[in-house]
Amino acid sequence: MNPPLHYAVVGAGIAGLCCARALAAAGVRVTLFDKSRGPGGRMSTRRGEGWACDHGAQYFTARDPAFQAELGRWQAAGAAARWEPRLVVFDADRRRDSGGAEARYVGTPRMTAPARLLADGLDLRVQTTVTALQCYEHGWELATAERGVLAEAFDGVLLAVPAPQALPLLQPVLPALAELAGGARMQACWALMLRFETPLALDFDAAFVNCGPLRWIARDTSKPGREGAETWILHASAEWSEAHLEDSPDHVAAALIAAFCELGGGAPLAWAAHRWRYAITASAVDGGCAWHAGAGLGLCGDWLNGGRVEGAWLSGHALAGRVLANVRDELRPGLVQA
Ligand code: FAD
């Protein structure tokens, strides 16, 4: 009997995890690699002594029936819940209530919880940065920053990383997919986490901000399942973040805290800044996912499907479907061999 097919999935964000789980459920052997210390990617939470704060994705929506069913599983496992913040909008000249009644969901007790649930039982190798792909007769080999070239070869490689990080991996081996990744533009976001001794006396929990350097502010501790000191997250707008990409954290904190105070907030007891270089997809590349059957190489991620958590999950789901439809294709035309 032939050994089971063995695929590498690079990136354990929500797209890579969904893809890996679907393949594993179908009997494909999957090994997942991520350069970070744990799964979740941009669905992430910073934790300190007595406090925690989601500093990437803030909440997600569920419009697609397949994702709604997945969300149901997360909720049943206690890994997600509905968040019903008192939500307002700050325009340049006025404050108004946010219209619309769309349901918003968050991971519980932290935004990383759905990823941890999905990673359970998978062969996940963290702190492993894939730096190059090489294709040989016996399969794909992966070069990594931490462990050099890995000993095992893979029947296929699925990249579930932001487009700018997929680009250098694709360019030497499959220029056609590199071109696709090169067409996506992702923008930065400065995130500032604030910790307070006592809850702020504000009559809202979150706000979309359409003026000044901020785009979004939220009382993280208003999300379900959160414990510990009051924390707020401030996200700068893409325009401001791009213009201040190389500023020092001190400078960024001063500017964003001043803008927060103008909206009624206050100076925190402590703060922590995080710069997301690739936060949001400015120009979405549509298609859901990309799969080159001949090469055994695929792409998924939010940048291929609308730039959000739900889109990322659906992208991973779509790629697994494409792979499973023709995993036995042994031909590898169009591939630049090492
Ligand atoms: P990612 O989560 O980025 O996962 C990619 C993974 O690949 C990462 O874990 C990374 O460590 C790993 N990786 C990258 N390169 C390599 C390499 N060479 N080797 C190994 N591993 C590698 N979405 C919403 O729906 N609602 C929101 O409110 C929202 N707000 C956001 C706010 C911010 C500040 C940010 C940053 C994002 C926000 N998003 C939001 C977007 C959402 O987080 C993403 O759409 C989604 O999490 C993307 O998932 P992904 O799996 O495609 O990519």
Can you tell me about this structure?
By secondary structure, the chain is α/β, with parallel strands linked by helices. It is built from 8 helices and 20 strands. The protein has helices at 14-25, 65-76, 113-119, 163-170, 175-182, 238-243, 249-262, 309-325, and strands spanning 6-10, 29-33, 45-48, 51-54, 80-83, 87-90, 95-97, 104-107, 123-125, 130-136, 139-144, 148-149, 156-159, 185-196, 206-209, 214-219, 230-236, 270-283, 290-292, 297-299. A hairpin with a 2-residue loop joins strand 3 and strand 4. Bound molecules: flavin-adenine dinucleotide.
**Proportion of residues in β-strands:** 25-35%
User: How far apart are the first and last residues' alpha carbons, in Å?
Assistant: 29 Å
- Give the distinct bound molecules: flavin-adenine dinucleotide
Helix share bin: 10-25%
> Which whole number gives the mean pLDDT?
94
Q: Strand order, biggest sheet?
A: 7-6-15-16-17-14-18
Largest sheet, strands/sense/barrel? 7 strands, mixed
The SSE order reads EHEEEHEEEEHEEEEEHHEEEEHHEEEH
Name the shape in a single word.
globular
Low-pLDDT sequence parts: 329-338
Question: What value does the Rg take, in angstroms?
Answer: 21 Å
Number of separate helices = 8
Short description, anyone?
The chain has 338 residues and is an alpha/beta fold. Helix content is 25%, strand content 31%.
